[in-house]
Amino acid sequence: MRISVIGLGAVGGALAALLDRAGHDVTAIARSRTAELIASEGLILTGARGDHTARLRVADTPPADAELVLVAVRTYATREALVSHAAATANKPVLLLQNGLEGPQRAAELLGRVDGAGIFAGLALFPSTRIANNRVRLTGLGGMRVGHAHPAEGDAAAAIARAMNDAVPSVSIPNMHGALWSKLLVNHVNALPAITGTSVQAVCRHPLLHSILADALTDAVRVGDATRVRFGGVGVIEPAHVARIRAGHALEVVTGRLATAFGYVPNPASTLQSIRRGQPTEIDDLDGAVVRAAASVRMRAPIHEAMVALVHEVSRTGEFLTASEVARRVDPWRTDRLLNSTDAGPHSDGRRVDARHDE
Question: End-to-end alpha-carbon separation of the chain, Å?
């Protein structure tokens, strides 16, 4: 298949390299330094699925013969990416590889596809890290789910999933909205590493932080239930895990499922990666999505409100917070109860954000 990839970051870069290795005709849509490096050195993939240097075509917009356009930019860059390539993507299927809940609707509006025709959501479930403009490292295994925005495009979603399956294990799903919510639960691992400057694995092990994460999951499921979400399965989080969270066992999901799903190589998650590069984060489309959903049914999600505020604070000040400070800011009652039996956090010096790309 002739596939164009807009956004060669951790997810888009990994998929572009893996699709190239599988024999697909992949074009990297890139400019400036990224385009120069991919053209001269290739797109270099390392990690859990082996090493591969993809020698890709490089262009500044999808070519006319593209059969599928992958959009893997951050949520805040969606408008610029889609509007600038609107003519080139006209009448072509678009697979969004983004976090949050609102991507498909946003893309349909920007591309003038009011009924959502030709808009597909790709839920990437593999952990990866962008370590340079043309270098991506997979830090664990995982697959993809492909959902469709238009009710009559199940067959088209299945065809896209078959192509993606050449790169990573992929299947199509009928319940796109429920799957997006379940993926949002997985993406709850972003905020605390970004606030504390640690990895997903460290957060899931830390006795203060994993409790906060568990409470965030519990509140998100509570909000999803109130808005009548039918949670779907996305591999890392399945309906059985949602049921465990709903029944009061969120901490088991954090220390069991999430702690192991991201592999053994410390994974900083995408929000921390953005902070370290001095880029905007997607927190308003992650925890912020729960806040907006809660407001739509006259509820509040205070832990998620705190996560949004703290990520913005770290982005603005360049100062990571200790685990104990995070706990105090989020839930003083929990801090008072737990500080007697734990230390102050994974680091206690409030160290500054640095420019490293991985742990």
Answer: 35
| Domain termination site, one of 174, 193, 219 | 174
Q: Flag whether 357 is in a domain.
A: no
| CA–CA gap between residue 119 and residue 333 (Å, rounded) | 45
CA angle 160, 6, 17 (to 5 degrees): 70
Q: How far apart are CA 331 and CA 61, in angstroms?
A: 47
Residue 33: which domain range? 2-174
Asked if residues 219 and 290 have their Cβ atoms less than 8 Å apart, the reply is yes
Rounded to whole angstroms, the Cα distance separating 38 from 194 reads 28
238 lies in the same domain as 97: no
The pLDDT, as a whole number, for residue 332 is: 57
3-class SS of residue 52:
strand
338-351 pLDDT, tens digit per residue, is: 444 344 343 333 34
Residues 163 and 304 placed together within one structural domain of the fold? no
- What does the CA dihedral 98, 77, 221, 309 come to, rounded to 10 degrees? 140
Which distant-in-sequence residues (6+ apart) come within 8 Å of 256 by Cβ? none
Separation of alpha carbons 349 and 331, rounded Å: 21
- Residues 213-223 have a mean pLDDT of 95
Residue 166 shares a structural domain with residue 193: no
Beta partners for residue 148, in sequence order: 120
- Kindly state whether residue 107 falls inside one of the protein's structural domains: yes
Nearest to 198, CA basis, from 100, 271, 104, 133:
271
What is the number of domains present in the chain?
A: 2
* pLDDT 10s digits, 255-296: 999 988 887 778 888 899 899 989 999 999 999 999 999 999
Q: How far apart are CA 201 and CA 254, in angstroms?
A: 10
Q: Residue 128 forms beta bridges with which residues?
A: 138
Helices (H), 111-208: 154-165, 176-186, 191-196, 200-205
What letter represents residue 321's amino acid?
L
pLDDT (0 to 100) of residue 338: 42
